[in-house]
Each structure stands twice: as C-alpha cells, then as structure tokens.
Amino acid sequence: MGGPQPGSLLDRFLARLIDGILLAIVNYVIASIIVVGALMGETGGGMMVSTGGTYAVAAVSSLILVAIQMGYFVFMESSRGQTVGKMIMKLRTTGPSGGNPTVEEAIRRNIFMAIGLLGVIPVLGWISGLVSLVAVIMIAVQINGDPIARQGWHDKFAGGTRVLKIG
Asked: Which helix (H) or strand (E) holds 5?
C-alpha cells in the first residue's frame, strides 16, 4: 500500500516513553526548584513541613505536571505534528483533515492526561495513578485491536486523529 502506514503500538509506546522521560526531568526540576523552594523557603529549606504544606506541594505539583504535559503535547502536535519522541521514532500525528491536528483536536486527544488533576483532591489524589494506568491500557488495547487505523479512544474522541509512520 502507498503512503504512510499507521504507527505500530510499540513505536507509539516508545515515543511516549521518550516524551515521558523528558517531561519527568522537566517536572522534577520545576517542582523541585519552584514549588519546594517556595513552600519550604520560609524554614530555610528545613524538613519542618506541616500536613498542609505537604498537601500544598502535592497539589501544586499535580497542577504543574498536568500543565506541562498538556502544554507540551498540545503545542508540539498542533504546531509540528510531532513530539520529540515521535520525531525519534519517525511518527507523525495528523488531524482528521490530514494536516497537523488543530489545538482543539490536540487537547481532546491528550485530555486523558488531565486525570493527574485528581492529585489536587485530598481524598481522591491517590487514585489518579490507577485511573491514568487504566486509561493508557484502554488506549493500548484499542490501538492493538484496530489493525487498519490503529486508533485508540483518544484518537476517536479528537475527531479521528491518526499517528502515522513517516520513515
């Protein structure tokens, strides 16, 4: 068949892994320097953090993580059609029209990352990792179960975005 083919589950996984490592480094640096430094600065960086301070650190870290992740994926996919991981794996995200996804399509495609906002809710924060894992497993199962288009629910929710192998 001519033209780009849908990206394999393994290629897409490796691209997300690469992006995840990059984002983890950025989040760690930002959370460590800004959040922890700002919240613990009054005690001179001592270990005297109250329960409220611990909650504040977790809440602000959750907000920053989601903002960084969403901003990165939405900006890169809508402006370039590729994240760094997709560039390395020679993949490209396309919108339903065939060009780069629009900002709205990229937001819809990556909205599952906002599950991390559950970390702001004291009683439900612990469940965010579990819910995120379930969402990612559902995406992987659907991509694997769709041998023609290789679309997950997030691609369909975004109006039919596709991830294509370009190299």
From this structure: strand 5-6
Strand-by-strand arrangement of the 91-94 sheet: 5-6, 162-165, 91-94
Instruction: Give the β-pairing of 5-6 and 162-165.
Output: antiparallel
Please state, as a whole number, how many other Cβ atoms lie within 10 Å of the Cβ of residue 54. Answer: 11
Query: Tokens 């290789």 sit at which residue?
Result: 150
- Give 135-159 pLDDT, tens digit per residue: 999 999 999 999 899 999 999 999 9
Largest CA distance in the chain: 64
Q: Provide the whole-model pTM.
A: 0.84
Neighbours of 162 (CB within 10 A): 19
Residue 163 to residue 37: CA distance in whole angstroms: 39
